[in-house]
Design a protein that fits this description.
By secondary structure, this protein is α/β, with parallel strands linked by helices. Helices cover 44% and strands 18% of the residues. α11 (267-271) links the parallel β10 (255-259) and β11.
Length: 299
């Protein structure tokens, strides 16, 4: 039971890119948003046949992610542009590092600039933040995972960036696993169904290969979830001493996931309680963009 899910998490750590078709769709929508009415400034001021080159320059230390997305932006704006990645996704970069070069029509570069940088900055920020959390729990058995707290439309790219930073992906969508949360339990309790019964009902009705996870807020609820046969027990905003008690109670009969209020300041302490997973919403919803710019050189 436990090893199967851990294998899934391990597989999720690979920096596999998202499918080309999906990437093209996401980039196309982003360009439609920015170029719906064209680039009036560039069209007015820059000769369409003027050529030159540009460099994508990093201005802060971090982990690079989103190079394929940036390349796809330039390709969709102008297929004749020559984009060369100098650093691959997952590479550690520092201030002043050139990570890509572009050659061709300057007007096309300017039209693609903001959208390409938006992808690179945002995804690199996520990868950088994830790497910090992963480093903070080094030496423990805890695995850092993301959540579904993502920007609508960008989940595939954001979860890819988490993998680039060394983290793992939790559920991709609501159909990717059973997770009984507090609001489910509130509704169920209104007609007499308790936590344990909810777990049993989910296990009976879910596909046989699908794991059943339940969110708990106390040691008592964790005990009930374990007795009902939950595969994964999420310890929501639980105190460290209570987490340790649950770890002792469960004794690896289910996976334990810590969630809620996790920060870089406390993630190490949470990992040292012995939990298996630590899910961090901040990886995607609060990561600071990595400062990256495009430096254009005419001629």
């Amino acid at each position: 039971m436990k090893s199967t899910y851990q294998e899934k998490l391990k597989a999720g750590s690979r920096m596999r890119p998202i499918e080309r078709k999906q990437l093209r769709r996401i980039v196309s929508e982003a360009l439609t948003e920015d170029l719906a009415n064209g680039d009036i400034t560039t069209n007015i001021l820059i000769q369409p046949d003027l050529e030159g080159k540009a460099a994508v320059l990093v201005k802060r230390d971090g982990v690079l992610a989103g190079m394929d997305a940036a390349k796809e932006v330039f390709r969709q704006v102008d297929p004749s542009l020559r984009f060369k990645a100098v650093v691959k996704d997952g590479g550690k970069v520092g201030k002043g590092k050139v990570v890509a070069t572009i050659e061709g029509k300057i007007a096309s570069m300017l039209k693609a600039e903001r959208t390409a940088l938006n992808f690179l900055q945002h995804l690199s920020g996520i990868a950088t933040e994830t790497a910090r959390y992963v480093e903070a729990v080094t030496g423990t058995k805890a695995v850092i995972t993301d959540t579904r707290k993502t920007i609508p439309g960008l989940r595939l790219l954001e979860k890819y960036a988490v993998r680039v930073g060394g983290g793992r992906n939790h559920r991709l969508n609501l159909g990717d696993g059973v997770l009984i949360k507090d609001n489910h339990l509130v509704v169920l309790r209104s007609y007499g169904v308790g936590l344990g019964e909810a777990v049993k009902k989910a296990r009976k009705r879910a596909p046989r290969t699908m794991k059943v996870e339940v969110e708990v807020e106390s040691v008592k609820q964790a005990r009930e979830a374990l007795s009902a046969g939950a595969d994964i027990i999420m310890l929501d905003n639980m105190k460290l001493q209570d987490m340790r008690r649950v770890v002792e109670l469960v004794q690896e009969r289910a996976l334990l996931e810590a969630s809620g209020g996790i920060t870089l300041d406390n993630v190490r302490s949470v990992a040292e309680t012995g939990v298996d997973l630590i899910s961090v919403g901040a990886l995607t919803h609060s990561a600071k963009a990595l400062d990256i710019s495009l430096e254009v050189e005419p001629g």
